[in-house]
Amino acid sequence: MAGVPLAAAGPLLDRLRPALLFTDVDGTLVGRDGSLLADLDGRPTLAAATALVAAHRAGLEVVPVSGRTRLQLREACRLLGLRDAVGELGAVLVRGGQAELRWGAAPRELGATPAEALERSGALATLLEAFAGRLEPHAPWHLGREGTALLRGRVEVAEADAVLAARGLGWARLVDNGRLRGAYPHLGPGPAHAYHLLPAGVSKAGTAAAYLAARGLAREQAAAVGDGPADLELAAAVGATFLVANGAWAAEAAGDQPVVTTPSAAGDGWAEAVAALLARMPAAQPGGGTPAGSDSVRSRP
Q1: Is the omega angle on the peptide bond into residue 64 within 30 degrees of 0, that is, cis?
Q2: What pLDDT does residue 285 have?
Q3: pLDDT at residue 290, as a whole number
């Protein structure tokens, strides 16, 4: 299904009771070089920062759900004033300062972490061998991982999963985490993608659903925003899913699930998604107050 433009998404979004926003980080909340204060081309912008402050003031909780590691997310959350996070595409849940590894179908006897199990089982080596010249570790960001192996290249995930299954490693799967901006011509023509090798049964959606249940929040109280296929998994756990403009290409992977696309890319698009949610929070309804400082992001499509 093609994405639903934000301007036409009113009937879908009006069903929400927003309390929490799961957000991807790179290419969604932040722009070039991982900066909150830059767009994808490196131009200065305050859009995402202003929207984040407005979300804080309105009581819309923001929870990063990212491919980043636990330590990377801990530092990002400290800087952004956030508390909880989901790392490594659902393999790591951080709540209230405590981290939990989600193993899925990974054999626990193969290591102290799912990432160790993926390496020691030969699953990682199998893919690197089968797709030599098309797939490689996403250095240097592949280091320090507990739940997944991080790769980059140009492969079809269905083909990779078939290779794993044929080697008796069907408990592992490859997930496309979106396009990379860097140039990697040695990996083939066209844009390279980031991929995560992770245990079957582990996903952003599964961990997000478990997090919402633990918090006592209903599906319609949560939304998600991202920029790639891995973020669309969250549609199974939340009331509405947004793709920022630079990730709108992935909407076709959503199947029958409607996905809202923002007019703008990265942080500017993130601010547009936040504005749509803040406009539907109780304080924004007739008779309710408007949180101080949030007027600039409260235009309702």
Answers
A1: no
A2: 46
A3: 37
- Specify whether the CB–CB gap between 241 and 234 falls below 8 A: yes
The structure tokens listed for 97 are 């300062």
Dist. CA 67–CA 245, nearest whole Å = 19
pLDDT at position 253: 78
* Cβ atoms of residues 260 and 8 within 8 Å: no
114: number of Cβ within 10 Å: 30
The label of the residue with tokens 């006592």 reads: 216
- Residue 160 confidence (pLDDT): 98
Q: Which segments in the chain show pLDDT lower than 70? A: 1-2, 283-301
Q: How far apart are CA 135 and CA 250, in angstroms?
A: 20
**Dihedrals phi, psi of 95, to nearest 5 degrees:** -140, 125
Residue 158 pLDDT: 97
Structure tokens at 202: 């582990």
Alpha-carbon gap, residue 224 to 24, rounded angstroms: 8
Question: What number of residues does the chain have?
Answer: 301
How many helices (H) does the chain have, and how many strands (E)? 9, 13
- Contact yes or no for 230/177 (Cβ under 8 A): yes
pLDDT tens column, 93-134: 999 889 999 999 999 999 999 999 999 999 999 999 999 999
CATH topology for 4-102+203-297 is Rossmann fold (3.40.50)
Given a contact cutoff of 8 angstroms between Cβ atoms, the answer to whether 66 and 87 are in contact is: yes
Q: Which residues pair with 26 in a beta bridge?
A: 30
Torsion of CA 258, 259, 260, 263, to 10 degrees: -130
Amino acid residing at 197: L
pLDDT of residue 293: 35
Q: How far apart are CA 60 and CA 53, in angstroms?
A: 10
- Give the whole-angstrom CA distance, residue 179 versus residue 239: 25
The pTM (predicted TM-score) of the whole model is: 0.87
